[in-house]
Write a structure and sequence with these properties.
This protein has a single domain (about 10-79), classed as Alpha-Beta Plaits, CATH 3.30.70. The protein is built from 3 helices and 3 strands. It has helices spanning about 15-25, 35-40, 65-79; strands at about 5-15, 30-35, 55-60.
């Protein structure tokens, strides 16, 4: 029996930010995927950090705590 995977949003931002976060998470061995990244490509002015049109990064609920810590460190370093 396979274990169910429940995706959880761990980050929302611009297309560029979401791509960077995805790369950082994958480097840490955490599988993740982007949602709404096509909107960020087609209409970059529509995507705003945390806004309605933001590009979102999702991880498995099992990896959420580790991923959230990594994202928080990333956010702390970009300010």
């Amino acid at each position: 029996m396979e274990k169910e995977v429940h995706p959880v949003e761990v980050f929302a931002g611009t297309s560029a930010q979401a791509t960077i976060v995805k790369s950082i998470l994958e480097s840490a061995g955490i599988y993740c995927f982007l949602k709404d990244d096509i909107m960020g490509t087609l209409f970059p002015w529509y995507t705003s950090a945390g806004g309605a049109g933001a590009v979102k990064v999702f991880v498995s609920d099992a990896d959420f705590e580790e991923a959230k810590a990594i994202v928080e460190e990333y956010e702390k370093n970009i300010q």
